[in-house]
Amino acid sequence: MPESMLSSRATVRHAAPGTPRRLGRRLALCLLLAPAAAPAPAGDIPLEPLLAAEFALQSGQLADAARWYLEAAEAEAGDAVLAERATRVAMLANEDARARRALRLWRKRAPGALAVRGADAALALREGRLSYARRELRTLLRSPDPRGWQYAYSALRSGRDPERVARVLGDLVEAGAIPDRLPVWQAFGHLALRLDDPGLAERFVEAVVRRFPEEPGVAIMRAGQLHQAGRTGEARALLAQVEPRAAAEPELRAMLAMTYEAMRAPGDAARVMAMGPQDTRSYELRASLLARAEDTAGLEALYRELGEDGAHPDPARRLLLGRLAEFLRRPAEAVEWYRGVPGGPERNEARIRIAVALHELGRRTEAYAEARALQDDAAADPMARRNAYLLEAELRQRDGDGAGEVEALGRGLAAFPDDVELLYARALAWERQDRIDRAEADLRRLLVVDPENVAALNALGYTLADRTERYQEALELIDRARVAEPDNAAIVDSHGWVLYRLGRHQEALVELRRAWGLLKDPEIGVHLGEVLWVLGRRDEARRYFEEARQLDPDNRALRRALERLRLPPDGPAPGAGDDPAGAPAATEPAP
Q1: pTM exceeds cut of 0.90
Q2: Alpha-carbon distance 211 to 555, whole Å?
Q3: CA 519 from chain center: how many Å?
Q4: Can you tell me the distance from the alpha carbon of 399 to that of 402, in angstroms, rounded to the nearest whole number?
Q5: How far apart are CA 274 and CA 451, in angstroms?
Q6: How far apart (Å, rounded) are the C-alpha atoms in residues 21 and 51?
Q7: Superfamily assignment of 1-24+453-591 in CATH?
Q8: Quick one: signal sequence residues (predicted)?
């Protein structure tokens, strides 16, 4: 979908699905039956529990799947692949006792395998057996196999409790267990920065600096840690020392820009990207950064620079000039640039942008006519025609025309039956209008078309958890998505939220902390804040509510959470609401 059609901020689980992603289970049975190091005779393969496990997994019933996979693994001697599958499904289902039994089988069938040690360390970390976890992780980190550290990293990254992960990682650093290679230290360093433990982050980065004092990437990591600790002035000074090398090193330039962006300094990110040779992609990135920084003077200068070569019929360049004109609130000039884009793939996007610019000019009838013309153009690319329906729906949403938004998407579905993008967009439109029954119907229709669409599974599960009381059904849908992408922050967040709605607050807190470590998203922050508030940890809750507000002041999830907790719209003041009578009891699910 063109960027223009994503003007409204999407919540984390409502990102457009794009190309449907597969769970990869259609051939799971075949994979399980593939020969292992010591294949069993064909007659010994336990088909009945395998099929039961597969059906349970596809239904999102992870506890049942874990039970059946373990039964199959114990009934079939010698298959390491099946034992591994049983271990991983049991861990995903939080069935630790079954995971231990399956892991014993896996270790016996694949002794010394790095993957076995990684899973063993992860399970020990989850169960609080930290000494054992440290021992297994050190063994992986010392392995002569170059992949050893990756298994150790994965085990730590999958840890559910950030405090335990931080403690073990800190011990590994103090013991000198991290291999003395820069990529390894960078990977573990980024993990340390995500754990919300300033002390660990500082110790880790100081250790990296001691080992690799001349590496600019290490200096950038150090700047990120300083900013996280509230020492932004020192972080900026450190980045300034690295900048002179950026013009000659594109990769370093990109790292600097990303760091400035994370520090909420898009103007500095744009300035860095202006160093060195430029191409259309770098110009586009600079324009986007300057727009986020609201740097009108910078946008004007870039517009003039590119406009000097505007007579050249480069489609990409003319598209960019049109975007710059839009950023500068000059929609009439934008229309002219877009109309000058010659044929080819850029022409389709230009036609979309013309409608957007006309809408900005207040010429709404013409804007809708442009979208309709593209929809009806049989010679146009089918995806462009489909996107024109999505665009019209977006414009009608901006105009507050909910009925028109749904009608446009309905016409799109008549032209492109069962298109997943259109179904997904209409489901979100229904949800915004509080028509949860219709939102559910469209998401279920999408899942009939594509039963393994991860975005739809997660969206439907989250919607049921958030807007209904059908929590168990929501959990099964989210679990199906978790099987596909266990480290997807949006899905981890949905899992934490449905656990909270089920009244399992401590489990929810673990999942939501993990989601926040994976992605600093306002809605995840809101969920984490609400769980902490209900648990009586008000100071921590205030911190996350405020971070969510800084990321997105108009966040709908934040507004609804404050209403649920009966807090003022601008959030709880320090010391306010410390009487837990104003919030749901910690032993009950949120309303």
Answers
A1: no
A2: 43
A3: 6
A4: 8
A5: 45
A6: 23
A7: Tetratricopeptide repeat domain (1.25.40.10)
A8: 1-42
